[in-house]
Hints:
Order of helices and strands: HEHEHEHHHHH
Largest sheet: 3 strands, parallel
Mean pLDDT: 77
Strand content: 5-15%
Helix content: 55-70%
CATH architecture of the largest domain: 3-Layer(aba) Sandwich
Structural class: mainly alpha
Number of helices: 8
Distance between the termini: 40 Å
Oligomer: single chain
Number of domains: 2
Number of strands: 3
Radius of gyration: 22 Å
Strand order of the largest sheet: 1-2-3
Low-confidence stretches: 197-204
Shape: elongated
Amino acid sequence: MGLQVEAFASLAERADRAAVGGHGCIVCGLDGVGLNQDDFDALLAEIGEGTPVVLVGRSPPLELVVRALKAGAVDVLRRPAEPGALECAVQEAIGRSQSEQIHRSRISELRERLDRLTYREREVFDRLITGQLNKQVGAALGITERTVKAHRASILRKLSVGSVAELVRLATTLEFAGQQMLERASTASRQFLARGEAPRPVTA
């Protein structure tokens, strides 16, 4: 594949080194990972922060597979993987990291803007993006229409947008980002289970 590779004996060893930088990914073996749940939980947290991860295992516990995919792992491959499967998964992970780096930065910026709103402004925002008029928002919240307009002006200023229509687009972007993650996890789970017999369950 022409990629620079660095090997680690364990998740703990990798955690002690610098995190993946630039456009790269982590390929992690799932076999025996349950022996150190703390390390696996740390890996899941890293996945949630945007690190692309491909997991490989002979018969990984279903619970770990589901948790990894829900966290955002690129793929979980059965060992031995089909010819070219690992290469395809790694290339997909690297490609995803390139596009999502920009996307995540945009989503993070939008969420930071949203966090600037006061509790009352957030209440007004939630109603404005559903199409409610100022009068309807005021009636629902027990405030005057003038107060609603004042809150709306403050919301537009804090979110750096010029109209309610832009507010709706902003909210849609954030909602779509969350749906994409859920849909991706659901699709990846179905693909994994379709590759062969179900992985073994975790036993106490």
